[in-house]
Amino acid sequence: MQHREQIIEKSFPSFTWIHIINPDLQNMERFAEKYSLNDYQLTDSLQPGHLPKFEHQEKYQFLILRALLAKIPERNNMVGQVSGKVSFFYNEDKVITICRHHFAFMEKPFSEEINSTEAFVIEVMSRIFHTYEGILKHLSDKVDNIEKVIFLRNMSRISLEDLYFHKSKTRVIKKLLQISQGVINQFKFKDEHQTAFQDVNDKLFGLILGYEETI
After folding, report:
1. Architecture (CATH level 2) of domain 6-214
2. What is the pTM of this model?
């Protein structure tokens, strides 16, 4: 069943967050006009398979990142099958996020002490990259099991097709992380947010190394 568009608005002390889930195309055109959003960037934010990107506009910053889905079938290995987009339009007064999926990490409460849109965006970044941790453990455990079977020389228990999908999925996820790293390295946050942002960078770097080890 197709879910209807949801728009959630929350006020923080110094900014407003507007979160749009499963956007309706006609509504989005009116929304873009209301907030002076670039048509091309809005189109990018609605394309299911669009890769991470960052663009600076005169009135706001535009960002796309991808979070891993909570449930990924074993033989799904395409970008759009394993992940979903979170698009951001933000300036000092407002953050607009757009998702096609109901991500649990977006519905989890945010601290009322978040004092700026930059701090909010960094917090969402951290939550997005956290979604890569669970599947990393699953893929790592699977590699360990395969290596044990090879060591015991019980090759009949290895499915070459399963092995192909495992490696393909791992490569796709690692590539997503590498693209994301290139995107967030374009950011320049205020000094007060540098520590939190560096924590996100460190987490991302560790994830890339982790996925590299599972290929």
Report:
1. 2-Layer Sandwich (3.30)
2. 0.89
